[in-house]
Design goal:
Number of strands: 8
Strand order of the largest sheet: 1-2-4-3-5-6-7-8
CATH superfamily: Alpha/Beta hydrolase fold, catalytic domain
Helix content: 40-55%
Order of helices and strands: EEEHEHEHEHHHHHHEHEH
Strand content: 15-25%
CATH topology: Rossmann fold
Largest sheet: 8 strands, mixed
Number of helices: 11
């Protein structure tokens, strides 16, 4: 595969996975687990940071997103099998993994269960909802609390709400995102949303729900259930980055993960939010490269 190449990878069970590769095939790979909702689309900010770090980007749309086949009742653990198939297809023997937001737990699943993973980076990644010492909803904004409260219930109301939201995302604009999300974002995030990351989010959201809201539904459902693997199975170094002004994934999630992973390095950025955490991706990628 060459830079910006996308293909549909056939998997067992008549499933197909939308896989994207950006960067020089001769460079080591970083597997990227996208946020929720999202899909594998061009991500110039990350591609440029990876190029400076001497890495190429490998990503895929999780089941139900983009052109990937839906996989009902999947767990966070399920993504490890898809990652194994991607690695086999691309002949990847070693790689790093990164995940943002809802992609964070999926990155940890890959780090725990896919041979060849050398390190992991979590950018504002969720902690588990099923442990007694982390209040999963504490510190989240009202819109996110409402979304996950419905996910915990898992009833028809949950699917209907996401279906309606997905319909709106199909034609969303950057101005629409600013209007819809602005009140829930810190000042730095509001500025970030008006820049290139906002353009990326528009493309990502639109492609995520181009066919269905199933990927979003199944992501949320997987996040609030048991992830399917113990964190002490993650034996590689993990860099955990969070922002003190994040109201989608509050910094308590990062603190919890850093204290429960066997080899974790915590980075807490004062005043950074869920979007503006990307201001620090270059330095974070440089750090994970140093442990190779």
């Amino acid at each position: 595969m060459t830079k910006g190449n996308v293909e549909l990878l056939d998997l067992e069970g008549s499933r197909r996975l939308e896989v994207r590769v950006d960067g020089d095939d001769r460079l080591p790979a970083l597997l990227y687990c996208h946020d929720t909702p999202s899909a594998a689309v061009a991500f110039p900010l990350l591609e440029e940071a990876l190029s400076r770090a001497g890495l190429r980007l490998v990503s895929w749309s999780r089941p139900g997103y983009g052109r990937s086949t839906t996989q009902r009742n999947r767990s966070v653990r399920s993504t490890a099998e898809d990652a194994k198939a991607v690695c086999a297809h691309l002949n990847l023997e070693q790689f790093a993994v990164a995940g943002w937001s809802g992609g964070g737990p999926h990155a940890l699943a890959i780090a725990a269960m896919v041979p060849g993973c050398t390190e992991a980076l979590l950018l504002s990644g969720f902690g588990p909802a099923t442990v007694p010492d982390l209040d999963f909803l504490a510190g989240m904004n009202e819109a996110v609390i409402e979304e996950f409260t419905l996910a915990f219930d898992g009833e028809e109301e949950f699917e209907a709400a996401l279906s309606d939201a997905a319909t709106e995302l199909q034609t969303v604009t950057r101005e629409g995102l600013v209007e819809a999300l602005g009140g829930d974002l810190c000042e730095r995030d509001q500025l970030t949303l008006r820049g290139p990351l906002g353009d990326f989010l528009v493309r990502s959201f639109q492609h995520a729900v181009v066919r269905t809201s199933a990927g979003w539904r199944d992501d949320d459902s997987a996040l609030v259930r048991n992830w399917g693997f113990p964190l002490d199975q993650v034996r590689v170094p993990v860099t955990v980055a969070s922002g003190t002004a994040d109201t989608r994934v509050p910094p308590a999630h990062g603190a919890w993960l850093a204290s429960h992973l066997p080899q974790a390095s915590a980075h807490v950025y004062e005043g950074a939010g869920h979007l503006s955490i990307w201001e620090h991706v270059g330095e974070l990628l440089s750090e994970i490269r140093e442990v190779r």
